[in-house]
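Give me C-alpha cells for this 375-residue protein.
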Amino acid sequence: MRKAFISPAKYVQGEDEILNLGYYVKTFGKSALLIAHQDDINRVQKQLDETVEKFGIKIVASHFNGECSRQEVARLQEVAKENHTDCVIGLGGGKAIDTSKCVAEGENLIIVPTIAATDAPTSHSAVLYTEDGEFDDYAYFKQSPSVVLVDTKIIANAPTRFLVAGMGDALSTLFEARATARSFSNVNAGLPNGYITKETAPAKNTIAAYTLAKVCYETLLENGFNAKIACDNNIVTPALENIVETNILLSGLGFESSGLAAVHAIHDGLTALEGTHHYFHGEKVAFSVICQLVLENAPIEELYEVLDFSLSIGLPVCLEDIGVESITFEEALEVAKKACIPEESIHSMPFPIVEEEVAQAIIAADQIGKKYKNK
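Here you go.
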C-alpha cells in the first residue's frame, strides 16, 4: 500500500514574525509579487515597510480583485512576468492565499495569513471559484508553499469571527480523516487522477497524518473557547497560540494527508444556495460537519459534543445560521447533486452515496441543529 504525507518546507509562528518576511524573500531573490486585499495590506503596511527597508527587497503590488478565479490568476501571472518578480507572497485570507498558489504554480511561494480562518496556508491545493463566487474546481501543485509565516499578534487583532470560522474548518479534519481511513480512500497528498502513472499511484493516509487530525480535534475542544475570549480582547495567550496552530498547521496537514469526505463536498454543494454566499468557508463547513455525522449515523454523544462546542464559540449549527431560512427537499436535492458529482470527496465515505440520502441528511441536520440550539 502506497502512503503519502505532504507539508510546507518551513512553518514559523509567533508574535511580530512578519518583520522577518524580507529574509525569506531574499532566499529567492530581490523582489516579490504581493497578492492581497488592500484592506489586509493597510493592516500591516508599517511592518511591510519595515521589513522592506531592513532586508533591502522590493514588493510589487498586484491589486488583487478578491476572487480566486481563472481570469484573476491569468491576470496576476502577467503582472509577475512584467515585473520579473522572484517569488510570490500570498497575504491575507483564503482566497488571496489560494490565488497566490495558482499564480506561483507551486514554486517560490511565501504564505502570510493575517487571519486564521481556514487551513489553506499549508496546503498544495487551492479552490477555484467563478467570478460570481460559486465553486468551480480544485487545483493541485507539485509541492506545498515554501514558507508559511504566521504572525499571531496580527491574527489576534483581526475580527474574532475569522478565528471562529477557522475552528469550523478545523472541526471537520478528524471526521473526514476517519471516514477516509475506514474506506481506504486516496488522500490529497497523493497525485490527482489526471497525473496518475504506474510510478505515481494514488496514496492512502499515514499514521502521522491521522494522529495530527486527532490532535486537531482534541486541541479545539481544550482551547477553542479560551482562544475566542483572547481574540475578543486582541491579546495573544497560550490558548490563542494553540488554536492558531490548530486552524492552520494541524488542520492543514491533517486534511491534506488524511483526506476529505462528505463535509467539504456538502460545503461545495451549499454554495449553490445564494444565502450562503455571505458566510465564510469555515462557517459553512461547521454546519456540514453535522450533516456528515447525520449521514453516517455517528454516535449521539459525538454529535452532541460537536453541537455543544459549536454553540460555545458561535459556529453555525443549522441552515438559518448560514443565511438559509428554510429549505425544500427539491432545494436540498440540488445541493446534494452538486455535492455528489463524481469528482467530489463525498465518495470517500465508507458506504455507497445516494443523492436522496444526502439531501435527507442535510434536512435532518438542519432540524437537529435548530432544535438543539433552541432547547
